[in-house]
Recover the amino acids of this structure.
């Protein structure tokens, strides 16, 4: 496979993002930084955040750092919040991050918490 130019990589990432937003289901969007991980369930049709969780939440903040265990806790909490908001099916938006490590731990915990994607 040929190497992609920065323009081609960005174009590919934008096309993927647009395809996810047009899926017709709420989107479980994940962002990961060096210290924290954030997850939101977003309804793109209405432009509303239906549920959110992160390692900055008071219940999670002191116990764990930027680890897979913390990501799993965030996944479990966002699944609980989404179910409370009446959402059971979502589209997983990994935000361009590779599906391994903390992102995978969050996704697996959200699945165990009752979200389908």
């Amino acid at each position: 496979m040929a190497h992609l130019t920065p323009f081609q990589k960005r174009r590919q990432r934008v096309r993927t993002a647009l395809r996810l937003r047009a899926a017709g289901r709420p989107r479980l969007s994940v962002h990961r930084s060096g210290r924290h991980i954030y997850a939101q369930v977003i309804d793109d049709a209405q432009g509303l955040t239906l549920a959110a969780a992160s390692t900055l939440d008071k219940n999670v903040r002191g116990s764990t750092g930027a680890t897979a265990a913390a990501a799993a806790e965030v996944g479990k909490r966002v699944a609980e919040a989404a179910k409370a908001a009446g959402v059971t099916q979502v589209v997983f938006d990994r935000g361009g991050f590779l599906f391994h490590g903390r992102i995978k731990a969050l996704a697996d915990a959200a699945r165990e918490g009752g979200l389908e994607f």
